[in-house]
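Input/output pair, single chain:
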Amino acid sequence: MAKNGITPDFLFETSWEVCNKVGGIFTVLSSRAHTLQQQLRGTLIFIGPDLGNKSHGFTEDNSLLPDWKAAAAAQDLQVRIGRWDVPGNPICALVDFQPFFDQKNEIYAQAWEKFHVDSLHAYGDYDEASMFSYAAGRFVEIAVKSCIPEKSKVVYQAHEWMSGLGMLFLKHQCPGVATIFTTHATSIGRSIAGNNKLLYEYFHGYNGDQMAAELNMEAKHSIEKQSAHGADCFTTVSKFTDHECAQLLDKSADIVLPNGFEAEFVPKGVEFTRKRKAARAKVIRTMEALTGTAIKDDVLIVSTSGRNDFRCKGFDVYMEALAQLNARLKADGPADASATQVLALIEVPCWMEAPRSDLQERLNGKEKAFEEPLPNPYITHTLHNMDEDRILGMMRHLGLTAGASDPVKVLLIPCYLDGNDGIFNMPYYDFLTANDLCIYPSYYEPWGYTPLESCAFRTPCVTTDLSGFGQWVNEVLGHNGEIEDGVRVIHRTDTNYFESARKVCETIRTMLETPTKERTALGRAAAKLAQKALWKNFIRHYFDAYTFALKKTETKQ
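Output:
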């Protein structure tokens, strides 16, 4: 906390990913809650969408804030209040936004008149996110006017464009509320990258408004831009993204809020060893059941994971590197090069249909070995679009089909690892312990939680200098990260795709040739870096933002 900082009496954090595991923002919020509560000395309340039984880790508690709930109900807003099952067990309010769809056109008309938010070209998830955002802001407006003592210092932090509309309406109705808008990635930057345009070579020539029209992103860009300009404090997650905001939103961040991690998520000592042994056994057994091939216990396990954002996350580079490695090991490997040397996992949610029944049957049986492979032995679940999925298509194109003679066997795990997927039935963090090396060759990554999580779990990793985390690593180390540092930071550009893949391939080969004792040392180096990114070291930036916003509000009153 800043020495001369102002601490909020009430802090509201609003996001579509509160109790709703979609992407990295869920980790930002859930991993930070405990540290934030320890230092806040005020009331922290997370606000998320009420998705019924799909809400993740929410336990309703009718004893919490009953007067707030009643005040909202009197204004025809239904709210469930309880606890979020994450470290710190913070108070959480889930708002029912469905009734506001009937008022959608009126809300959008007011948004244009009051804030110049253009929703004319809205499509897809825009309406759902906006009605949630409006409901969240309305809930806090009711609380401020009916339940919170006057002159209380109230901060409302809205995450991403999905929460911006409600923040703007709240600020209009309650000028005394200090507002913070946080963009974790600009909608236009992500869209430019995702549409195979050269984001970096022409970066300073891009105009956000112009690109929004070209990419049919006017509505999302409009709410994002107006929220950035309208908030009392505008923040983003890295210096990398700050430059993007200045270029595409015409607004630099007031405060940069780097993403941290919480040590409580990482098992210690014997517990870590037990989880790692169990996770590796599950991975190896599953691959044996799929391929009909015996695999040694000390096989090198590598992985990538994240949101299904094919180019931005670098899944294409990862697969290209695996294809190069497979070919090299076949060509110049030892005499037993046909034996499985690398298990390469791709943990990316796809349009998943169901866990494979033939695989379940083998895993639940008593056979110790399998003589024949199953059909498509490179995927654990069926997809609705098996013939059209982009990852599967590239795997087949590159010959990454887990053949008996392939020293590198690749496995697509196309589901959320929530502990209930029907095959592994392990939560992601338990599954993470199986790895010897994690690889995230991102093209567009404003921060990058997956490499930070890898480090925290004592697993060396590869990332790029086009990720906020990779740039932070280089800054902390004072040089480009190498695998000996626990994190190798590869230089990526718009055009060095194959060079990046070659460097990933080389790193995996290096790990193959590294003795177990030295791999353990690399893991310790990674964990040492992760210690520098704990929330206890980064949380001060949030208090800087609270102070900035509250001081701005004071000058307006």
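The radius of gyration is 24 Å. The mean pLDDT is 95.
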